[in-house]
Amino acid sequence: MSEAAGRARRFARAWDDLRGRSGRRVMDLVRGQVAVARAGAVLACSTASGEIDRSAARTRMAEVEHEGDAARAELVRALLRTLATPIDREDLFRLSRSVDDVLDHLRDYVREADLFGPADLSFATEPLQAVIGGLDELDRALPKVFDDPGSVTVAVLATRKACNRVRQLYQARLTELFAGPLEMDTLRERELLSRLDAVGRRLGESADALADAMLKRSH
């Protein structure tokens, strides 16, 4: 690339930053990551309900994880090229990393369900539905950063509520398990429940990153 062409590209990038286009592009990439994580949660939920064979779900989840890695890599590249970001750059990285962690734990859940999961996975359906709902709320919050920043907090709280629901379901199911006989399936289910609880916690960290970013932006 010639020096003149390089200057032209830098000027175009700076002009896009000034008009806010780059910021919206970055936020769209974050939403892309959230969409991939949601696809992973839907796949895990379909496995729990028996709609998809566990082995097939594990194979498909590997593809979803690859999509998530590509989405995060694209976001990181965009952040390196963007002069001005819609929210604090560090919080954007935190948000992206936490969403990636959500997908990683969903991948582990699907893999462990295939490797050593109990015969009945129906206990996981409701927590995973809560995760899907929380990701939907997070996705709704992101574009509001530009158009309705005051309502972002409401959507973030809804995401947090979904995370709390995952924790409540985890604790309630553990209570039921520990009230019964200690069997191998009990231990298997406990491990998968712990994995789902980790999914909820990582989703909560995503919400916290966005909440922190909005607090900084308001000052």
Automatic annotation (TrEMBL):
InterPro entries named among the record's database cross-references: PhoU-like_sf, Put_Phosphate_transp_reg, UPF0111_domain
Origin: domain of life: Bacteria
Xref: Gene3D superfamilies: Phosphate transport system protein phou homolog 2, domain 2
Family membership: Belongs to the UPF0111 family.
Record protein name field: DUF47 domain-containing protein
Provenance organism: Streptosporangium sandarakinum
Lineage: Bacteria, Bacillati, Actinomycetota, Actinomycetes, Streptosporangiales
